[in-house]
Amino acid sequence: MNKRTPTLVSLCVGLLAGSVWPALAGELHVWTSEPAGFNTHSVWYDDGFEVTVVDTQFTPAIAEKLIADIHKETRSPITRVIVTHPNPDKFNATAVFHNAGAESIASAATAASLPGVDAYKRNFWVKVAKSFSEETYPRPEPIQTTFSGRTTIKLKSGETITLIELARPGISSTQTIVRFDATGDLAVGDLVHYKTHAWLEGGIVNGKPKPDLEGWKADLKELPGLAKGRVYGGRGEFAPVEEAVAAQITYLDKADTIVADYLNALGDNAKAEFDDGARAQQHYALIRDAVAKAFPDYAMPDLVSYSVYGLMMQKLAAR
After folding, report:
1. Which of 201, 316, 304, 311 is nearest to 270 (CA)?
2. Which N-terminal residues, if any, form the signal peptide (predicted)?
3. Which residues contact 60 (CB under 8 A, 6 or more apart)?
């Protein structure tokens, strides 16, 4: 599914004969996968001369649908794909974009973390969930171009896109945001799920989940100082920066409290309860229900039951 944002300045400043006039702003689109791809958004930006895609989608087949839809919408070639953070739905389909002639870009920290994340997730999807075989699970290719801190990309129209590596771990172990400088809009991956439940697993570090909610909130607090447009997260709806940040911080604080209170209610039995796989799944479902009750208008509550194990295991280990 492809959407154009309603607040775009179209490419009305054209190329006059013999002289180049940079466009005021290109068109920002959002393509969303079907539920099998976790309703994941890929933002793509067409400046009238080239297309920049943010995040690859979970599988090559889904990425191919994304690319096909882009080609239906524009004649501009896809020249780059940017990976915002090391979660599989952001990087698994790099090979598809490379084959299409696009350059992959990520922070050096994100690029370095991909093999470890891939190994962890491959083990889950192949050996635990058994949704793929070793042969059918995606094989992402390495990132081609990396940066550290901040880098600005000049588009063929004369516009710029700025990639900013945030200081702390966010949803994952590393976090990049993409600022479309002509509009002040941000593409941030799963750092923000506006009106949609969050993925609470944490980054995969040394083969284990490592949530950092304080780092996540610190990253969010950076956003209002970096841009004044809208935030385009990895799932859910879109909102002005200040509104999106406030809502996400409120959500994280409440979810953290719910998990802590649930653990405390189990008392000394907590470790034994979560050591039992079947009972642990029942507890995660109850936590999902509690978070869903706190945020009744939020979509995709199952994201909580699938991911909250990371936050719960962290709290158990700290007891």
Report:
1. 316
2. 1-25
3. 92, 93, 95, 96, 138
E strand residue ranges, 166-219: 176-180, 185-194, 203-205, 208-210
- First-last CA distance in the chain: 45
pTM of the predicted protein model: 0.92
* Residues 155, 87: Cα–Cα separation, whole Å: 27
| Plot region of 225 (φ>0 → left; ψ -120 to 50 → alpha; else → beta) | alpha
What is the distance between the alpha carbons of residues 160 and 289, in angstroms, rounded to a whole number?
43
CB contact at 8 A, 54 and 178: yes
* Site of tokens 């953290």: 256
- Whether pLDDT at 15 is above 60: no
Question: In whole angstroms, what is the distance from residue 32 CA to residue 39 CA?
Answer: 6
Q: Over the chain, what is the mean pLDDT?
A: 93
H-type alpha helices, 223-240: none
pLDDT of residue 25: 80
pLDDT digits (tens, 9 = 90+) for 198-240: 999 999 999 999 999 999 999 999 999 999 999 999 999 999 9
Alpha carbon 139 to its chain's center: 19
Around Cβ 131, how many Cβ atoms within 10 Å? 11
The Cα–Cα gap between 24 and 117 comes to 39
